[in-house]
Write a structure and sequence with these properties.
This protein has a 7-stranded mixed sheet with strand order 7-16-15-8-14-9-13, with helices on both faces. Strands 3-2-4-5-1-6 form a 6-stranded parallel sheet. Strands 10, 20, 21, 22, 24 and 25 form a 6-stranded antiparallel sheet that branches. It has 4 domains: 215 residues, Rossmann fold (3-Layer(aba) Sandwich); 131 residues, Rossmann fold (3-Layer(aba) Sandwich); 76 residues; 155 residues, no CATH class. The chain has 20 helices and 27 strands. With 624 residues, it is α/β, with parallel strands linked by helices. α2 crosses α3, α4 packs across α5 and α10 runs parallel beside α16. The chain is globular, with a radius of gyration of 25 Å. InterPro entries: DNA_helicase_UvrD/REP, P-loop_NTPase, UvrD-like_ATP-bd, UvrD-like_helicase_C. GO terms for molecular function: 3'-5' DNA helicase activity; ATP binding; DNA binding; hydrolase activity. Keywords: ATP-binding, Helicase, Hydrolase, Nucleotide-binding.
């Protein structure tokens, strides 16, 4: 068994879990693990066993996961097993591993190409580049998580990687085909997203079909997540039904929904009677579509969190509060602790104290002398996907989580309130079976209790940008999503064209005070800024930002779809735009936008942004 930090590791493994953990390092295994069977714990224990008891070098071990959230969880849990040795293991998403290969072996690597072009280039490097082959020859074991979600180009990439690994390099693949819901987006119900039908064989099918790759299958059966009899039956019996292709037929989705109702701890909750404010931070409110999530969040005036695609990685407000006017190249621990004591202590409420915050900074941009390199810190935090050590897991403030099933995949909560969709229609039996798997994923997020309700089944529309909108039945107003990634930029916070230095300072000061509270803003169109909307605190309050043209363009697209582009115009103001505290935006030292900003932000690169999550009503008026 695992020898390092034995006290931190669960020792009561069942026989099936122990077999996976202690299988020889050179083995290639596919582990079928349903919800609640301890997959993440076993994956981490497998890595810990390999690196501490099987003499596998941690730096020669890769862990590949599908989401950044899973990466963060695995990293934290693995550290509790084997301590600092875990930092040597390459734990990252598929895209991060791909970029590491691309940037490390292609001098012309750029992030400007399309996703498809970048992945295709990495596959070529795997096939033909001798330096990549040398790097792979050092790899002793690869663990792949959530493999059921790997289709299309990601499956192409991982398949090629496995083929190019040395024959004595072990591979452990964890998967649950009952949770394979990649083909549907969280915006649609019963309609496949974009190119899902063209994605081809999933990775699991490919690995099993090629006997030369040498994969064997192991199964984890025992359920540990819950003691609820109904949930256990959902996790086991319903999972068998979902996997049984002989049961897939017309009406299977409705049958699955009814089975979930029967096995839930409580049922009958009506969407129209539900208030987000009635729930706690232990609760996860699950909806099928993002429009329903936005509607629920819009009418909640208490702190809550969103789990929804389209909202970028959130950096905590304390970063900008501490460093917005910090212009030195390095910061020492003593100086940082002084900043924290003066600006953070008793004023905002991070989830951790100054010592842990400092450790996060050191891990991301530490120097040998024990200080933090601010230029390196900005480069890391200014990336589209900043380090998970410093990002927040959800978008918003402490409180209940409101999200879609897709965005909550791989996550769990003590109590889940699942609003089941109704009236879904499907073009094929395969589509209906996949949507039944979506229901299964939603129902298996619960650890303690599952409450099932009915959604109101309203349908929102989605623009090309991904923004959701929904017209009122009377046709007089349209609810439009505000707060998506890209709606608020550095220029829209402290830009010289948008703000005087004094006004920028006033806006930033307000956001520092409102870092942990819900604030209701008003949008006001500014003709001097091409009718972009200023974000104001009530009537006549300070302006804390300017919404980018993304929103304005989308409003005109809505009018185009309604055939009113020439007869109507977007409103001059919009009320009830809710902000869930503040977040940090960081610009890298080489970002061209810096020259457009006021000081001190043009030099520091750190600024606060309102964390807006809103679905307000826009009234489009006829032109005079």
């Amino acid at each position: 068994m695992i020898a390092v930090k034995q006290a931190s590791v669960v020792t009561e493994w069942d026989a099936e879990q122990r077999q996976v953990i202690e299988t020889v390092a050179e083995a290639r295994i596919i582990v079928e693990a349903g919800p609640g069977t301890g997959k993440t714990a076993v994956a981490c224990a497998r890595l810990a066993y390999l690196t501490s008891a099987a003499d596998v070098e941690p730096s020669n071990t890769w862990m590949i996961s599908f989401t950044r959230t899973a990466v963060a969880e695995i990293r934290a849990r693995l550290h509790s097993y084997i301590g600092d040795a875990s930092f040597a293991i390459r734990i990252a998403t598929i895209d991060s591993h791909a970029w590491s290969i691309h940037s490390g072996h292609d001098p012309n690597a750029r992030l400007t190409g399309s996703y498809e072009e970048n992945i295709a280039r990495v596959i070529d490097l795997l096939k033909f580049d001798d330096d990549v082959a040398d790097e792979l020859s050092q790899v002793e074991h690869v663990v792949i998580d959530e493999a059921q979600d790997l289709v299309g180009q990601r499956a192409d990439l991982i398949e090629e990687l496995v083929k190019r690994l040395p024959s004595d390099c072990g591979v452990t693949v964890f998967a649950d085909e009952a949770q394979a819901i990649y083909g549907f987006s969280d915006d649609s119900l019963g309609h496949r997203s974009g190119d899902a039908a063209k994605l081809g064989e999933a990775l699991l099918e490919r690995l099993r079909a090629q006997r030369s790759l040498g994969f064997e299958t192991l199964i984890l059966k025992e359920i540990y997540r819950t003691s609820s009899p109904g949930l256990k039956k959902i996790f086991s019996d319903l999972r068998k039904d979902v996997l049984d292709k002989n049961r897939h037929r017309d009406g299977f989705h409705a049958e699955t929904a009814e089975r979930i109702r029967e096995l839930a701890d409580s049922k009958g909750l009506k969407w129209t009677q539900m208030k987000v404010a009635d729930f706690t931070s232990d609760d996860l409110l699950l909806f099928r579509t993002r429009g329903e999530v936005l509607m629920a969040a819009q009418f909640c005036d208490l702190p809550h969190r969103l789990r929804l695609s389209g909202y970028g990685a959130t950096l905590p407000a304390w970063l900008a509060i501490c460093f917005s006017d910090f212009v030195e190249p390095h910061v020492a621990e003593r100086h940082f602790l002084g900043l924290w004591a003066a600006r953070i202590e008793n004023k905002t409420a991070p989830h951790y104290g100054p010592a842990e915050a400092w450790q996060h900074l050191l891990r991301v941009a530490g120097r040998r002398d024990g200080s933090v390199d601010m230029q390196k810190l900005r480069k890391r935090l200014g990336q589209a996907r900043p380090p998970v050590e410093l990002t927040l897991p959800e978008y918003g403030l402490q409180g209940p989580i409101v999200g879609t099933i897709h965005a909550s995949k791989g996550r769990e909560a003590s109590n889940v309130v699942f609003l089941l969709p109704n009236g879904a229609e499907f073009e094929t039996v395969e589509d209906e079976a996949e949507e039944a798997r979506v229901l299964f994923v939603g129902a298996t997020r619960a650890r303690t209790s599952l409450i099932v309700g009915e959604s109101n089944a309203f349908r929102a529309s989605t623009l090309a940008s991904g923004r959701v909108h929904r017209s009122a039945r009377n046709g007089k107003s349209t609810m439009v999503e505000v707060g998506r990634d890209g709606d608020i930029t550095a220029r829209g916070l402290v830009g010289r064209s948008e703000f005087s230095a004094a006004d920028a300072k006033t806006g930033q000061a307000f956001l520092a005070k409102a870092a942990d509270v819900v604030t209701t803003y008003k949008l006001e169109a500014d003709p001097e800024l091409y009718w972009c909307y200023r974000i104001r605190v009530g009537d006549g309050g300070p302006c804390v930002g300017v919404i980018s043209r993304n929103l304005t363009f989308d409003l005109w697209e809505i009018l185009e779809k309604r055939k009113q582009r020439h007869s109507h115009k977007p409103p001059g103001y919009v009320n009830h735009v809710r902000g869930q505290g503040s977040a940090t935006i960081v610009l890298s030292p080489d970002d061209s936008d810096l020259e457009a900003l006021n000081e001190p932000w043009a030099t520091s690169g750190f600024m606060l942004a309102p964390r807006i999550t809103a679905f307000p009503s826009f009234f489009f008026f006829r032109r005079k």
